[in-house]
Amino acid sequence: MPFLDLPPWLLSLVLLPFGLILGSFCNVLIHRLPQEEEAERNVVTKNSYCPSCKAPIKPWHNLPLLGWLWLRGKCAACGWRIPFRYPLVEALGGVILAGSIWLFPFGTLIWLKAVICGFALLVLFFTDFTEMILPDVLQFPLMALGVLFTLPQLFFTEKMIAIPSGRGLTDFLQASLWHNGLQPAPSWTIFGEPVTWQASLIGLVLGYGGPWLLNATYKALRKTDGLGMGDFKMLAWLGAFWGWGPMLGILFGGAALGAVVGVPLMLMRRAGAQSMLPFGCFLALATPVIVFYGPGLWHWYSGFLG
Ligand SMILES: [Zn+2]
User: Fold this and answer.
1) What is the SS3 assignment for 58?
2) With contact defined as beta carbons under 8 Å apart, do 174 and 110 qualify?
3) How much of the chain is helix, strand and coil, in % rounded to 5?
4) Confidence at residue 78, expressed as pLDDT on a 0 to 100 scale
């Protein structure tokens, strides 16, 4: 029996405001984590302020989405036009949390892992997009977290829960520790076996080492840095979260996306081969594609090869 016997749409609706608030906190992280001064990076005790005039923001102006609409997109104190990124990140936060329960069984370990991954990618996409920075302070804990998520299955092997999915397959959840009777996720059909600690550790090491090798080659050929160090760390924690196979898929997908966007850009600017592309953004975009469609894509690809 599901521990929360709510219809999915109602559960989504309940989670939506929390997602918006988390999205609002993501904006704080996106603005403050790349700052150079230590004091400016404080995201815990420092109150919200306007990035332009530093005036404190009134609580009711700070409400996700509503505050922005109320202020018509301008700072109440100085009239600074609030970048569209702010309401966008808040809305995406709402979408991630409200949407999560349709794809993952609410309250299980795999659900928590996916939500954390989603919000981490949201923050990293925008710090990389705006400042070309992927903050260590997020990425190192994520590496550890990815490995930690594989540990419960070592202790609760006998309680691994099999639930029938809509397509006649049996999915195994790494839900044991925080088992809640399984809130059914309407679109849950995709996941096979949980990521093992071996796959997670290999993902962590390979995520860091693989691109490092690639980069060394690139450097030798082009005499410049192709990838930033932050990109390796991002692959490392994605490997720890989803295992080494999907991590390689994410690297491949990110590189393909980067080429699709980067090559025309380079041709347009001609000499622009030196200009840096935020590779973290492409990795962030590739991750949900691989996590949700990776096995299917792999199946299709290996069938293609014969
Ligand atoms: Zn202002």
Assistant:
1) coil
2) yes
3) 65, 5, 30
4) 93
Distance 78 CA to ligand 1 centre (A): 4
Centre a 10 Å sphere on the Cβ of residue 259 and count the other Cβ atoms it contains: 13
Cα 49 to ligand 1 centroid, rounded to whole Å:
8
Q: What is the pLDDT of residue 263?
A: 79
Between the CA of 126 and the centroid of ligand 1 the distance, in Å, is 21
Instruction: Please state, in angstroms and as integers, the Cα–Cα distance from residue 117 to each residue in 9, 130, 207, following that order.
Output: 22, 20, 16
From residue 207, give the alpha-carbon distance in Å to each of 80, 122, 143, 178. 41, 20, 10, 28
Length of the chain: 306
C-alpha 7 to ligand 1 mean position (Å): 42
Distance 56 CA to ligand 1 centre (A): 8
Distance 134 CA to ligand 1 centre (A): 26
Rounded to the nearest angstrom, the distance between the alpha carbon of 41 and the centre of ligand 1 is 19
Q: From the CA of 52, how far away is ligand 1's center (Å)?
A: 5
User: Whole-model pTM?
Assistant: 0.84
Q: Where are the alpha helices (DSSP H) in 109-176?
A: 109-131, 136-148, 152-155
pLDDT at 5: 61
Alpha helices (runs of H) in 2-108, residue ranges in sequence order: 8-32, 66-70, 85-103
Cβ(78)–Cβ(55) under 8 Å? yes
80 CA to middle of ligand 1, Å?
5
The per-residue pLDDT for range 256-299, each reduced to its tens digit, is 998 888 777 777 765 455 566 789 999 999 999 998 887 777 77
Helix (H, G, I), strand (E, B) or coil at 227: coil
Distance 125 CA to ligand 1 centre (A): 25
